[in-house]
Amino acid sequence: MTELNEIALKIISDGKGILAADESNGTMTKRLEAVGMDSTPENRLEFRETLFSSESMKECIGGVILYDETINQITSSGKSIPDLIYSYGAIPGIKVDTGAKNLANSLEEKITEGLDGLRERLKKYYKLGARFTKWRGVFSISNKYPSKQAINSNAHSLARYSALAQENKMVPIVEPEVLMDGDHSAEDCLSITSEVIKKCFDELILHKVDLSGIILKPNMILSGNQSNHKISNDEVSKKTIQCLKSSVPNEVPGIAFLSGGQSEIEATENLNLINKNNNTNFIMTYSYGRALQQGALKVWSDSNKDTKATQKIFNHRAKMCTLASLGNWSKEVENK
Ligand code: 13P
């Protein structure tokens, strides 16, 4: 077993999942303002420290993805954020892309940037304690898109990023997100997501990335959020497995889904069914942002930053997601 494979497995084994707390300051400002809180560095730290010191970090969370501001912050007890995460047995990771910009000659599409100077930034993050990284490529579905140009250029960037992360002894999370925005069918989502993931692996292989030392972070197969043809949760799980079975090489140890705008319950229920129906060798777990934090953020704001009340909600959510990663979640345990 290589060192990278060992780190990847430590993050996602035994029902553990990933807490994606790597919202950029821009995104975090939207999330905080939506619940009536000011987006100051202190508030961002306080909310995140509340989550990272929750009891469920020990049994449920294998890794936490941080943003540049957070990995450099010091907690109220004087510890660094990575040390706080390590003290709960989880591994700190870091988002290293610098965001999605308009793609030249296809301006309605996005290309994720951040390759310039990446080697040096990775070395800095390793010293701060990070042992895994994240880069997100984003694709939207419409009559015209995604174009081959967007699929190829984002896959190329994901592969170059992954090779650099591994060179610096960190596990790359490879995140090609096909957005749920639009009125497309689940069939369209299935065929486009499969094409995108296959292209990513073509490029990862071309760039000699060790596939046993990555974690894939894809979207689930859903119909568009404006589609009139919703499919059942069971169909979501079957289509998602079908997609991954046909497009992900066997060496990949695991898959950690993004929630992508699904509600907390939807994201939990779908993950649970994916694990119940999983007929692959891949570990299938979560790497949720909104679907782990939404409820906790609301309570944090409503309760005037009550740590215990906020952690109670987060602990429940993380526990439900971990049960779903083991295929053991049910509506009864959710509402107990
Ligand atoms: P969501 O689960 O809110 O989609 O966030 C996951 C993530 O890390 C997106 O890059």
Kindly describe this structure:
The chain has 14 helices and 10 strands. The longest helix has 21 residues. With 336 residues, the protein is an alpha/beta fold. The chain has one domain: TIM Barrel (Alpha-Beta Barrel), CATH 3.20.20.70. Helix content is 49%, strand content 16%. The strands form 2 sheets. Strands 1-2-3-6-7-8-9-10 form an 8-stranded parallel beta barrel, surrounded by 7 helices. Helix 10 packs across helix 11, helix 11 packs parallel to helix 13 and helix 12 runs antiparallel to helix 13. The structure holds 1,3-dihydroxyacetonephosphate.
Helix content: 40-55%
What is the name of the CATH superfamily? Aldolase class I
Arrangement of strands in the largest sheet: 1-2-3-6-7-8-9-10
How do the SSEs run, as a string of H and E? HEHHHEHHEEEHEHEHEHEHEHHH
Bound molecules: 1,3-dihydroxyacetonephosphate
**Which regions are unreliable across 5 or more consecutive residues at pLDDT < 50?**
none
As for the number of domains, it is 1
- The shape is globular
What does the main sheet amount to?
8 strands, parallel, barrel
**Computed structural class:** alpha/beta
Brief rundown of the structure:
With 336 residues, this protein is of the alpha/beta class.
Supply the key terms.
about 325 residues, alpha/beta, TIM Barrel, two-stranded antiparallel ribbon, binds 1,3-dihydroxyacetonephosphate
